[in-house]
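Sequence, please.
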């Protein structure tokens, strides 16, 4: 089997924020110190070597790329200041850009001005599109869906979700094919027998529940570099708060539409604060706002290695998430005020536009790692399980 060599690979990864790793002489300090590297995953040294010699397919097909949480321990011990932790983060950005066939992710990452203009224009387009169909602002109650029709929001949301699904699916298929080829994992190994199905089930549980939702290795193995911080300031908790918050809000939105579909409650009907779906949305919003606020503060203060090199695309994502959380709370406050404030309608329009944009841009920013990381972790667990079974 032959492999194409990309002579410009290292220079290309550097466009995504990697330091010059050409001085790396494979001493192995980084692999030895990394709390997540094991016999199966000799990273980050091996991945740096791939970039040095132009092995693009090997780099993009490395499941290990996504197991790193950028704790920075490796960078602190590197004798050549190659910043291997920063290299891993840049290589993940590079991978997101390569899995995306539209080149939008590459633009968002490598052209800060163009990326920012796209983000602002997209929000403005959504706002103008919604506003073009606006209705009256009731002064007796805050009738948000009388102002922006609910069917318009629903239908636009469905179109956005379909586009995101197609873009995400194309990326995931490309990634899964690359990793499975490198790992020698066939479709038969995943679903071809009862034993394979059982292995896949365990790998799926490990990737989704244990590692992604539970943050096990981030929480435990990366703990040494966070040990002096109280739990609510630790990177894993801030990261998890943001993820749990977003997933909770997404679940509350889907449940709200689900209740309307089965005729239990029309979307937008006023409900008390303790109503289960509203309560879920409120708690999730608090997690999202806390997580994103801390992520922004940490990046402003360059509080750790991961927060010290931010791209414009990283900022765009954080700002969109933060605005979505904040405007959601402002709408909730407006809904419970004794007389409906006029600003509630405009905040609602802003909230819907930014939320739509956030979802639409998800496959083209760091947000995409929410899908790519579990896929890589699935293969990581599957390969480990398969190796254990073969022994
Ligand atoms: S990145 Fe640094 S620590 Fe890692 S192998 Fe290269 S020189 Fe050694
Ligand atoms: S940043 Fe941390 S987790 Fe990532 S490769 Fe370096 S030591 Fe390992």
């Amino acid at each position: 089997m032959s492999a194409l060599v990309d002579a410009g690979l290292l220079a290309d990864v550097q466009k995504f924020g990697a330091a010059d790793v050409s001085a790396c002489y494979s001493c192995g300090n980084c692999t030895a110190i990394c709390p997540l590297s094991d016999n199966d995953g000799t990273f980050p040294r091996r991945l740096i070597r791939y970039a040095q010699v132009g092995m693009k397919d090997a780099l993009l097909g490395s499941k290990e790329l996504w197991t790193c949480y950028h704790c920075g321990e490796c960078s602190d011990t590197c004798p050549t200041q190659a910043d291997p932790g920063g290299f891993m983060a840049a290589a993940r950005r590079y991978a997101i850009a390569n899995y995306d066939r539209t080149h939008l992710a590459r633009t968002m990452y490598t052209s800060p001005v163009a990326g920012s203009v796209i983000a602002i224009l997209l929000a403005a387009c959504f706002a103008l599109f919604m506003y073009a169909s606006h209705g009256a602002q009731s002064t007796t109650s805050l009738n948000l869906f009388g102002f922006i029709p609910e069917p318009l929001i629903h239908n636009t949301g469905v179109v956005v979700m379909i586009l995101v699904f197609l873009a995400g699916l194309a990326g995931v298929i490309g990634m899964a094919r690359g990793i499975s080829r490198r790992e020698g994992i066939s479709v038969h190994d995943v679903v071809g027998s009862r034993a394979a199905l059982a292995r896949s089930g365990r790998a799926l549980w490990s990737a989704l529940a244990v590692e992604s939702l539970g943050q096990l290795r981030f929480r435990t193995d990366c703990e040494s570099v966070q040990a002096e911080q109280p739990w609510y300031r630790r990177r894993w908790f801030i990261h998890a708060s943001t993820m749990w918050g977003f997933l909770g809000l997404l679940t509350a939105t889907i449940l709200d539409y689900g209740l309307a579909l089965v005729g239990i409650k029309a979307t937008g009907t006023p409900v008390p604060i303790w109503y289960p779906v509203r309560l879920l949305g409120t708690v999730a919003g608090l997690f999202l706002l806390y997580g994103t606020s801390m992520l922004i503060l940490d990046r402003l203060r360059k509080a750790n290695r991961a927060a010290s090199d931010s791209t414009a695309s990283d900022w765009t994502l954080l700002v969109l998430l933060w605005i979505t959380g904040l405007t959601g709370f402002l709408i909730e406050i407006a809904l419970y005020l004794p007389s409906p404030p006029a600003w509630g309608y405009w905040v609602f329009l802003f909230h819907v536009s930014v939320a739509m944009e956030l979802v639409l841009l998800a496959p083209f920013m760091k947000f995409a790692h929410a899908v790519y990381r579990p896929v890589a972790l699935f293969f990581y667990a599957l390969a480990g399980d398969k190796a254990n079974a073969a022994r």
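Residues 34, 36-37, 43-44, 68-74, 84-85, 88 surround iron/sulfur cluster (ligand 2) (CB under 6 Å).
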